[in-house]
Write a structure and sequence with these properties.
By secondary structure, this protein is an alpha+beta fold. It is built from 9 helices and 9 strands. The chain is globular and about 55 Å long. The mean pLDDT is 95.
Amino acid sequence: MTADHYLWNILQREQVDNGLYSPVRNCQQTMLPLLQQWGGGFLVDVMASGSFAKGTANKSGTDIDLFVSLSETTPETLKDIYTKLARRMEELGFKPRLQNVSIGIKVGSFDVDLVPAKRQNAFSLDHSLYRRRADTWTKTNIAAHIALVSASGCTNEIRIIKLWRDQRGLDFPSFYLELTVIEALRGRSGPSLSANVWTVLQYLRDRFASARFVDPSNTNNILSDELSDTAQRNIATAAGTSLGAKTWGEIVR
């Protein structure tokens, strides 16, 4: 079996159905009335987002992200919105997990991340959301993220690197990872999946720790600041170790 065949087999095993009739979309329908009750007249929309919407999801990761858009007239602060949504999920028996910008819950057999945000105005898709780790807020545009990543031509390489990250327990936020893969392959992407993944690992080993990544929808949101120097070095070290592996089975499985 060639390296490319090995990696393609992994992608097939981890393939996620994100079509209109995907069973995981039922989570959106299940949560919608509960979120409407919680948000009242301030709820604008609940939409699929994250890796599911971008085409970069794996079966072994979170099944779906639901972006919970609230009106700019919502009186609560972003922190209060996040806290109150987590409390409501707990009251409903969902056992919420507090993450950075999302709240993780289990809906049936599916892992769902709720991302509450407040729309900045009625004329754009820009939103403000709470960042729990830094106890601050940031502006972002989820629709712009989805469009950028899904059209990058790098979704297969991103999925492999996400598996690699998860199997090593690395702290590497998904959008930061996606932009890193796109940058590593800028002008160098070819037909060989294994060669492209190898290029990404080389980038992670040699250039990642000193690279600066900015949210393309908000130049004040420095994604590379989300990780400590130690966390970035851990990623670079793991990439170096993988590049020294004798087989692809030692790199990702």
